# Entry
Amino acid sequence: MTDQKYKRTKKLQKAIKLNLKRRTVIVDDKLVFHNNVPIPSWIELSIIDVCNRSCSFCPKADPKIAPNTYQKMTMSLVEKLTNDLKKINYQGSVTLCGYGEPMLHKGVFEMSKKLAEASFVEIVTNGDTLKPEIINKLYNSNVNKLLISLYDGPEQVTKFKNMTREAKVPEDFVILRDRWHGADKDYGLKLTNRTGTIDIGNQDSIGTFTYCNYPSYSVLIDWNGDVFLCPQDWQRKMTTGNIAKEDFFEIWTGSTISKFRKNLLEGNRCDKPCTECNAEGTVLGKNHATAWKKIYKTNL
# Structure
């Protein structure tokens, strides 16, 4: 390996570790209880089902698996979620990402401002729609962090740093993420198969990991209010409830998610989509997993 390639590899590893450290602070330092039950600290919100890009490591690259439906979350659903989170004293993050590019939703500013009443708000974007005035507007919509995935090349770093300065927002408001790397660097990501939808890059085999903390600390909520076990379920195989019809806390403590949570904490990936998933699942959520184990042990 040349010195230049070695430096790039070390830089990439450092960036991944910093991103993991940031998420660890939010997830594992925010263990909050409601009615003696640990509530989630990470909610991924998919506000629109369309992306303007087609990346080979993303299920959106295959319209047969993840077609662009152009379906959008309504403001009334965001208001419902915000009210539900207030009821349980939610103190974690709501991250706008999911199955599409959130900045393609015209209501992203209003939604962010509403969600900020009950949560730490992050937006993950490919940056294609961003301009200095848009970044400034996101900041003034009470977004806490703007994470920009850079797919085109290292020259984008300078572009977005200049844009951030022009936006007159704090420098640490924007986080730039290396995503221009090729297949030999796994595109700058920790690749997973997204529960059997993607087979690209250097991935762990299905069955390598058995335990999983995802349903102990997080969920993904789709544009229509459907609540999924985790952001790995790109084929939308396991709905645990719908926030338009039920209270969020009722879904979080309901029989469906409880069944998966208990099995995964015992190291049993025995139901789909978990049987098809190769995500490690225990990197985050250790405090939540420990708390849930105590509850299940008490209830045995």
